[in-house]
Amino acid sequence: MRPIDLAVILAYLAGVTWFGARFKESQKSLRDYFLGGQTAPWWAIALSIVSAETSTLTIIGTPPLAYKGSFVFLQVVFGYLLARLVISTIFLPRYFEGQLFTAYALMERRFGPHVRKVTSGIFLVTRALAEGVRVFAISIVISIILHTGGLASIVVIILLTLFYTFEGGMTAVIWTDVIQMIMYVLGAGVSFYVLAGRIPGGFPHAMDVASAAGKLQVFDFHWSWTSPYTFWAGLIGGTFLTTASHGTDQLVVQRLLSAKNERQSRLALLTSWGVIFIQFTLFLTIGAMLWVLRDGKPITGSSDKLYPAFIWESLPVGIAGLAMAAIIAAAMANLSAALNSLASATVVDFYQPMTQSRRSPEHYLLASRLSTVVWGLVLAAIALVASQWGSVLESGLSIASVTLGILLGVFLLGVLTKRPGERAAIVGVIAGGLVMIFVKLGTKIPYTWWVLIGSSVTFGVGWLASLVVKPFAVTEKAKQS
User: Fold this and answer.
1) Alpha helix locations (H) across 214-261?
2) Which domains does the chain have, with CATH numbers?
3) Is the model's pLDDT at 333 over the cut of 90?
4) b/e burial code for range 374-393 (CB count within 10 A of at least 16 → b)
5) Which of 3, 131, 157, 453 lies deepest, with the highest CB count within 10 Å?
6) pLDDT for the residue 118
């Protein structure tokens, strides 16, 4: 443990916690707590989306993909762009019809309260599991720094993030995201610079060596149902994955709803893609440069420790602390957003309807803060068992992919069709769930195809069910949609 590096990390943790907590006074209602009062500028929301999409999983999980393979993972990012165009065209206009706090309120407007609870419940389970993996990912980084066990690392990061999320709500989430994204991009930039200096011949030589070894290959056009990183899996699978994660997952939709209007929300969403593309390219390049520096030696132990270990062992004193603080920054950014989105779905989709919105705004604000704390404890518990789930990057993506297709299928059923009712939608969800359990446990189909499969089954069965299943009584909200 080097005092200067530790001082940098602790100063950052204290500073960002203090900064986030300063937004407490602006939290007067659920609109303030969950949508930031819809006052944040589009560029801040764009950077916040990037923070949600990046996370520690990307930072420590992407370099090993290039180290052990090539740049083929980048193909998924092209699907990310197409998905953003789909969301901007299909979902955003519906989200900005009236005041929505969660994505799942749209499902009640179209189908009824049962579908809202089902879709929100799926989100809660999926996001909690996926975020638990991300919390475990940051414990890897902290254990390298402090040589502590996973429990202590998990407790520290959750308590600090809980504090400012509890106090400042979505406003704190967005503005701390901006700071933290700048931090981890800066950390990656410093790592890139140091790596280039340590490789004889610098960056050009490193790229020549990596290129000769096939490390810079981006496109793989062969068709395969078992390879996760082909052009077709990236374009088609990436499109469906991101349409689901950014169009139906409250973690990102909450940010889109926080914009002042639909135009600014669309601008934030599309701008975020350019930043994501640059980031993925940077982290893959770092992985290829590490391969050159280490003469292609196989990774011993967990591949997720490759990049954090390089930072801590190879960067100059002080700079190493800055780079490690950057990785922790990504974790805190994502964790704070997850806590706020889980709390929003819990209170707005379940507790408020249960109490028939009869309590005061102050009561629901308190309930939101308490829900944030409860979810923090749940994520800590999940993180403690996540160490058995393999690569943190692919584990996080695969967990989300199991249920995101079901959510996307029922959302598309609601937005693109008029005939299916609430019962038909629920039948589609059940069918999609059963098929995804089989795909996950009984096939070798990679996660990049799961959202396409899940959404197609949910949508198709839901529409067919509408031909034979008698609908529930249509609600007034559904009539108005």
Assistant:
1) 231-232, 238-247, 250-257
2) 3-389 (1.20.1730.10)
3) no
4) ebbebbbebbeebeebebbb
5) 131
6) 93
- Residue 349: other Cβ atoms inside 10 A: 26
Report pTM.
Answer: 0.81
Residue holding tokens 């999320």? 165
pLDDT at 474 exceeding the cut of 60: no
The backbone torsions φ and ψ at residue 466, rounded to the nearest 5 degrees and listed phi first, read -65, -20
As a whole number of angstroms, the distance between CA 385 and CA 40 comes to 36
Tokens of 108: 């009640």
Dump the DSSP string for 127-142. HHHHHHHHHHHHHHHH
Give backbone dihedrals phi and psi of 88, rounded to 5 degrees, phi first: -65, -35
Cα gap 408→142, rounded to integer Å: 35
Name the band, by pLDDT with cuts 50, 70 and 90, for residue 395.
low
- Percent of the chain at pLDDT > 70 equals 91
The dihedral built from the CA positions of residue 208, 209, 214 and 215, taken in this order, carries a sign that is negative
Q: Which amino acid is at 438?
A: F
- Tell me the helix, strand and coil percentages in the chain, rounded to 5: 80, 0, 20
